[in-house]
Amino acid sequence: MTTITTNQLSNNSVNDTNPQVSLSGNVVWEHHYSSSDIDVYLNNFAIASSINNETNPQVSGSRVVYEYEFSPTDTNLKLYNIATGNTTTVAEDSNNETNPQIFGSNVVYEYEYSPTDTDIYLFDDNTGNTTTVAGGSNNETNPQIAGNFIAYEYEFSSTDTDIYRYNIATGNTDYIATSVNNEVNPHVSYTGDVVYEYQFSSTDTDIYLYDDFTGQTITLASSIHDEINPQIAGNYVTWQAFDGSDWEIYRYDGNSTVQVTDNSVNDINPQVSNLGYVVWEHDYGGTGDIDVHLFDGSDTFWLGSSTYNEINPDIFGSHVTWQAWDGSDWEIFAADIT
């Protein structure tokens, strides 16, 4: 029997947004100290609180990476170590470094080489070394990391985006999806599987999965409507699909697909854990009251179901977080699943 324990992590008069959770249950988020000063909080303690903006925190193990706005035209990256309390610089040259993602000691991010050329770099906190993952003259963007693998988008042309994957252990790059159609929004698992959106036509986007073990690509979803927003963790993949009237949630477990929701309102923004749990936003009654729901493989539970909005869920293992409107500002909640 599934048991859910919920805690409110923040309770103040300003906005707390964009929560992220780690395998150990640590939660980080953006704390809007003022209209011009955003800080980073960890479990309701400030870990980055300068007069400059610190945003987009990501957490893995004992490390938190975030963007530091050195100036309005120069964003850098910093790393906070939960175990030691120390903050180090990941990247701080005069160009923008943004969109960090972290797994263990490895931080992958976008480096704005020029206004028309974005590259992807990798920083190893254990060694202090930075490696160029993708540094061609075309744009390489949207890096995602798990284990030794980094998946990202490669702009082959202005009308053709492909999916590449970099192996940290070997330094090799594999071409995952290179058709003349757009392949975008990749996500990678610890074992190297890559799920992504395949733009079959301008009105029809499907979901494909590259299996690293077999080297084959399979179609997970290909109706006449859109299937978008895929996420992967372990053997599990989730996505949202339009059924002609509203969005529904699906989950694939490595063998078969189940439809998680089937109703007349929108279910969107699914996230999945390696244990098979799926969380998403449910538009309750189509009234604009958005709740957070959880599917445990058999049953569906309401994690947040006030008369206000609960949005932006994130999950890792058996830990979930989301932000909730309390009538005046956004607060952060977390839940443990047992």
3D structure, described in words:
The protein has 338 residues and is mainly β. 0% of the residues lie in helices and 63% in strands. It is built from no helices and 32 strands. The chain has strands at residues 4-8, 16-21, 27-34, 37-42, 45-48, 54-60, 63-71, 74-81, 87-91, 97-103, 106-114, 117-124, 130-134, 140-146, 149-157, 160-167, 173-177, 183-188, 194-201, 204-211, 216-221, 227-233, 236-242, 247-252, 257-259, 267-272, 278-284, 289-295, 300-304, 310-316, 319-325, 330-337. The chain has a four-stranded antiparallel β-sheet, with no helix packed on it. Strands 2-3-4-5 form a four-stranded antiparallel β-sheet, with no helix packed on it. It has a four-stranded antiparallel β-sheet with strand order 6-7-8-9, with no helix packed on it. A hairpin with a 2-residue loop joins strand 4 (37-42) and strand 5 (45-48). The radius of gyration is 20 Å and the shape is globular.
The coarse overall form would be globular
Helical amount: under 10%
Round the mean pLDDT to the nearest integer and report it: 97
Please tell me how large the radius of gyration is: 20 Å
- The CA-CA distance between the termini, in Å, is 8 Å
Please state roughly what percent of the residues sit in beta strands, choosing from under 5%, 5-15%, 15-25%, 25-35%, 35-45% or over 45%: over 45%
Structural class: mainly beta
* Contiguous helical run count: 0
Strand order of the largest sheet: 1-32-31-30
InterPro entries: 6-blade_b-propeller_TolB-like
